[in-house]
Structure formats: structure tokens, C-alpha cells
Amino acid sequence: MFSLAEGCGCVSFRGGRRTRSLGDDSSSCRSSEIEQEVPKKLGKRILNGECTMKALAPFLKFWKRDDVSMTKAERTMKAAILIQQWYRRYLARMEVRRRYTWTIFQSIEYAGEQDQVKLYNFFNALLSHMRETSGKPSSERTSRTASVMEQVFSEESDEGGGVDETAPPKNSREPDIEFPLQRKDIDLLIETFRKKKHRLHPKQVAQILKEAAQMLKRLPNINVATTSISSQITICGDLHGKLDDLLVIFHKNGLPSPENPYIFNGDFVDRGKKGLEVFLLLLACMLAFPGGVYLNRGNHEDLIMNTRYGFIREVHQKYRHNAERLLKLIENVYRWLPLGTIINNRVFVVHGGISDTTDLDMVRSLDRDKYVSLLRPPMNEGAAPGGEGIDKVEWKQVFDILWSDPQTIGGCVANALRGAGTYFGPDVTTTFLSKNKLSFLVRSHECKPGGYEILHNGNVITIFSASNYYELGSNKGAYLKLCGNSLDRQFVQYTAAVSRTRRLTFRQRVGLVESSAMRELHSQIMTARRTLEATFRSMDVDQSGLISVSDWCFAMEETTRLGLPWRMLKDKLVRTDPDTRLVRYMDTFDLTANRGGRKSDAQTVVETLYKNKRSLEAIFKILDKDNSGYITLEEFSEACQLLGKYMPNPMTQEQLVDICRLMDINKDGLVDLNEFLESFRLAEKSLHEEEHMIAEIKAS
């Protein structure tokens, strides 16, 4: 009469006696198959997740018609088993969706970091080349740069937007905090930031940054924390501009103090909208509660990373007239942040991890302030022209502890996903802990669904404190409390914006995160559209618009290098021909073809510019050696001469001069960021027009 569909907890109705399939335990049953085999009303209930006795009441009617006599208890037991089996498979399907969604987010995130780190080789060669050709900057050039910066600041100050160090804050509704900071000032800051009442005066922001830098200068490279006074210590992971999460932590665990100390393990800014507020509040707490706050540097405490991931844009939006000067103060704080913390000589807390070459003695002895950016390491002043200008051994020590990730297998290999740091295995961890007489390692750097993860037989703990990191409901945040002399571990999980997430069912949360992931993935696909389309057409010998599933999966991975389960994602991205089972590959670029149903407009030049804007800003900042906000002809020529080594048709000096003059739209002898971006837009537009013309010629 009815049976469970093979390999699934769903139900099919057939003539004759009821049967139950004992097929494989797969959870990949299609919703369309369910609707065909189950009566419509019941099918809708099952698809909506209504796994209750009321929803499955029709099954009991069929049982009653069965000629095999059953007691009430037997029928109840069979119904319970049926519900349990279906619900387990339902949860399994949700878990599969959640996992591939998580894989999409992480792959895209790491691909972005990899792109940023890939610029390191270019930047390093560029700096070496500039040093070889120009030598040390002359005093005339240095004085010219200084005078330009002074002129810019004075102009901003004359307009009323600059930071006047001598004048008191204007009479306004800005929070009236006083220095040195005390508990009441922290309460006022929290109230101001939480209710979004008013913004701090730029002078107050500058003072917090300056005093914090002075305090950090006095600290060692590796902080020393103890629980002798407090008998406990709290470790927080990445916050990434999530002010709500920081306030939740303070609400649940109390404000910092010598009796309630905190370690914040880097990555305070970027991605979130409140990075500046998070950073200022942490620095203010460090100033107000000496011995109550320890700050470690993360890989995002780096202005080059900030250029790509949003913090610099945030500062410019909030302090339009003072952004550049405040960013210089922020950069000074970055360079003095300690690189790690050791608790009770037993626990090493660091942002990224370790490698098989990590040497804590070397880390303790290096000059951390010279590493303004790890992606632009300092040049050795005493190195001979043409020689190695970077101390790579020392630089690698810092890079590894800020960028590395643990792996489950043994050994230590380069971190290919991020493009920097290492993957270190359990054996590397054991050796490191034994050598330094440590018990375990606490690190951050990776988002985890539950906010934390324990690896390497309990020797490595990952803590991530930014909840809803990828999307609302995507993950929990967590912090770790180490209690008593034995440093017992206590994990506390939480979710910011609880009122919004509670209204969503599990299915809705998974669907919301999945939709967001597919939009991000579609953006990555559109970025690589030109290469992908060419690869698809080369596989489509008959030009039928169809290729095999295997060819489609191979092309997607070969082009995007995201390491995603493309065969599983196929039904979300493309349609297949019902007769041949071949993939309609042009659907890859059209979101209306997948179940998300969001219409995708044709790609425009503006979209092309937007998707490359972050990379272009990062490149502009690197080429602008003197941080004046302009690229001079000299700076542009030096960069292009280096690029000529890697280009098939290097340009002459005259051609370089002509290009720079063409980029100088207002003809003032300098190229600013807007002119740089506009030049790219025009070049991209010309390239698209040329490709369109070639395509028309081929078609005709």
C-alpha cells in the first residue's frame, strides 16, 4: 500500500501490501520526487518540516486498512520510528546544505586573502627595484614629502575639519570623556557606541590612539599574563568590527579589570561596520584598566589588508576630513601591538599559529615596530644594492604566527589556501609545546560554526568571537575562560542579534545563509566569466551550448580554484538537458537558472570597476611610496620598469611617460586615486568593445 522511498525517509504509495525499502542511507532525495510519490497535501507538510503526528495522520489510516492486525501500541511505535527516520534524514539534508554553504564562504574568503598575499612577491620585487635604482631617498625628496603632508593637514585644519591638538573639543553633544580614562569614561563610550548617539571628536580619537601607542611601546613582543590575582582569564578571538559581539561579551562576562583580565587575540577590524568603535573601545579599556586587557596583533592589523577589506573606507566615511591623519596614528598602534601572550608560562595565545621553524626566543628579540605591514616588509638599510634586502628568516617568524592554520595530518606545509603562513600538524604542535615547556596553544584566525574548535588531542584551541560572520545565523561566537591554577577550560557560546535569529526556523536559517553564499559565489563566477566562457566553448566542439557534467565541473575548478564540490552545486548553478543530461553551461552566468531565482543584470563597466576596486586601491597605496595620495611620474616609471621584466613586450621610457600623462586627467603632473580608477575603467571599456567587435566578425 505504501513504502519508504529507497535511500530516504520519505514515503511512496503503491498498490498491494505496504513495503519498506532497506536501501542505502543516502540523504539526497529530491523534493520533486517526494512530491510525485506523496499525496500533495501530505507532501507539502513534510517539505515544510512539520514532522508531527498530525502531519503524518494519513499514514495511520493506511495502517488501519491493512489486513495485518496491529495493536495500538504497535502502530504508535511504527509511526514513531517512521517520524524518527524521516526527521534524521531531513536533518542530514540540512547539514549537507549547511556544510557546502560553509565551504563556499570559506573558499571565497581565503581566495581573497590569497589574492592579497600574492601581491607580496610583486611588492617585494618592486621595493627592491626602487631601492636599487633610486638608492636612499634624498633629503630634498624627504623634505618635499613632509612639506606636502604638512600642507594637506593645515588645509584640512583651516577648513575646520582637521585635528587641532591645542584647541579643546567644540561645544557639542559629543561624549565628554576625560584623560586619563576611568571606568565612567568606558561606560560613557559603551553607551555612545551602543545607542549610536554621537561620534567621538577627532581630537579624542587621536588622544586614545596616541596614549595607547605609548603604552604598547613599553610592552614586550610576547606579553606575560597571570591568573595569580584574578584566578581566571578570558580569551576572545576575531571580532572583525562586530561591536554587538563585544558588548555581548562584556554583558555576559563583565568589564575588564585586574580581577577579570581579557586577552583579545587580534583581527579587531575589517569586514564589520563598527571596526573603529571596536578598536577604540579595546584601546580605551586597556588604558582605563591597566593589567586588565592584553591585545595581540592579528593579520588584519595591517593597513594594506584594511585597504582591501573595508576598514580604511570606514575611517574615511566616519572622519572625512581627518581620515589620513587618524590612519597614521592607527598604523602606529598596529606596529607596537604585541605578537602573542603567554599565560602562567603554560599557555601560548597567538593569532594564527606556529610552524616547524617558530622560535620564541627570536620572536622575543626582534624589533616588531618595523613591521608596519607584513605584506610590505622592511628593507635592510645595510644591504648592498642588488643583494637580499629583507631578513626573510625574521620576517617568516612573524608571518607564520599571524597567518598559519592547524591541520589534522602530521607535518608542516605551506598554506596554499591563504597563500601565506603554514599548515601545522599535531606532531609540530607537540614538538613546539615540549620545546617551550607549554601545555597547549590558543589561536583564532578561522571562523568556526560553533565559535570554537579543539584539535591535536586538545593541544590546539581555536576561538572565534564574531557571530553571524558570513550571514545572519551562519555561526555562533565564543570566548574561552581559563579558571584556577589548573587553567580549567570553560567555553561560552553566544549569538548577537538573538531577537532576529530566534524568529527563524532551522530551515530558514540554512536557506538564508545558502542564498547569501550563492550570491557571493555568483560574484566570483562573474569575475572569471571571460576565462570560464572561453573554456566552456573550447569543450563544446559542436557549439550546441551543452557539455558534460564532468567537463563543467573540471572547468569551474580549473578556472576559479575554489576547491568547491561543484557536482553537488550543479543543480544550484545550471540546468541540464532532460534528454542528453548535458549541462547548459551558459546558465552558469545567470542566477535566474538556479533555485535562488534572483535576476542577474548584464555585467557593466561599473560592476567591473567595483569588483576590482579593492585590489586597485591596494596597488595604488603601494605604488604611492611617500604616502602623499598621488603617484608621480618617477614612481610610476619605476614600477613599470619592474613590470617590464615580467611582460612579453616591455615598454620604452617614452611610452611609460605617455601612459602616465594619459592617466593624469587634470594635467597637474600627479595621478590621484580617482584618476587611477578612471583610467582602468576606460581601459576595461575599450577591451570589452574590442572583444565584442571580434565576436561579431567571427559570427559573420
UniProtKB/TrEMBL annotation:
Give the source lineage, highest ranks first: Eukaryota, Metazoa, Ecdysozoa, Arthropoda, Hexapoda
Matches recorded under Gene3D superfamilies:
3.60.21.10, EF-hand
* Pfam families listed in its UniProt record: EF-hand_5, EF-hand_7, IQ, Metallophos
Q: Know the name of this protein?
A: Serine/threonine-protein phosphatase with EF-hands
Name the EC number(s). Answer: 3.1.3.16
Q: Identify the cofactor(s).
A: Mn(2+)
Catalysed reaction(s)?
O-phospho-L-seryl-[protein] + H2O = L-seryl-[protein] + phosphate; O-phospho-L-threonyl-[protein] + H2O = L-threonyl-[protein] + phosphate
- Extent of Basic and acidic residues compositional bias: 133-143
Broad enzyme group: hydrolase
Q: Which InterPro entries match?
A: Calcineurin-like_PHP, EF-hand-dom_pair, EF_Hand_1_Ca_BS, EF_hand_dom, IQ_motif_EF-hand-BS, Metallo-depent_PP-like, PPP_phosphatase, Ser/Thr-Pase_EF-hand_contain
Q: Where is this region: Disordered?
A: 133-177
The protein's UniProt keywords, in alphabetical order, are: Calcium, Hydrolase, Manganese, Metal-binding, Repeat
